[in-house]
Every structure is written in structure tokens, then in C-alpha cells.
Predict the structure.
Amino acid sequence: MKKTMLFFTLILLLIFLSVNPVSAHFMTDRSKHSVDNGEIRWGTYHGSTKWTSARNTGITQWDNEGIINIAGDTTSTVEDLSFTDYSASDGVLGSWQKYTGADRIRFNNNYFNNMSACERNKTALHELGHALNLDHNNVAGSVMKSGYICQNFLGAHDKSDLKERW
Ligand SMILES: [Zn+2]
């Protein structure tokens, strides 16, 4: 490759990198999360979910990163998060909400009943991402991208956001 060619290639690469920064996506409000003392203890304060497989996949994936401990509530811990179900034609597959007593992740049976297991897993991963203060993004392969997506694992961007935030 000629030196001038290499020079222009480098310039183009620099321009590309500067206009396409894959920056972190946290919620503007840094207090919007379910993390308490470096962990999330989940339980049944607000009820339970029938989508235990999706719930467990979400918990295991985020917990395996080894940054925030996500474990079941015990008599000696305070519950931080519950998983419950509801049914409505509201266009929402699932949601995470700050709540008194414990925060809440709700799965919408209206859509979950017709979704594939991997779409349910991705939704559980997504809502837990909110519980970890992560916001939506449009990064391919990220569980924080909205919509019906078949995905059983965290994306590279999800892992780096978690690390950067906590
Ligand atoms: Zn969301």
C-alpha cells in the first residue's frame, strides 16, 4: 500500500470512529435501579411469575458477569426486586418499575403467551438491564435494544455497560 493511500485510510478510520462512538447507555437518573449494597435480592413481595425459565436465564446471565450479585432473598436480606405477570393489550412486553417494598419486573402474558422462549429470555435480560440502571440503545446484539428479538445471552455492549456503570 502506498504511503498516501495508508494516510487516507487512517484518516477515514479516524472519522469513522469519531462519528460512530458506541458510548455507554445508562439512565440519566443514576438512582433508578434495584441495586442495594452491590447486589439485587429478588423475591415474591409483589407476587410471582409463571415465566420462571426466562426469569432464571436473565438472572444467571447478569449474575455470571460477577459485578452485581443477583440472588434470592433470604430472611436476613431485604428484597429489592419481584417478578410478576399481568395481562393487557398495552404494547408493552415487560417493564421494570421502581416501587415501594421492592421494585417490580412485570411480564405481559398477553404477549409472552405467543412469544418464543428466546424472545422471552431476551425480554427478561432487558428488564434486568433496567434494574441495573442501563437504558435503551440501538446497538445490534444488545439486549437493551427494544422489540421482539430472539436472544439468550448478553451482548458485548451489555457487558461493557455493566462494567462501566458499576
Ligand atoms: Zn426497556
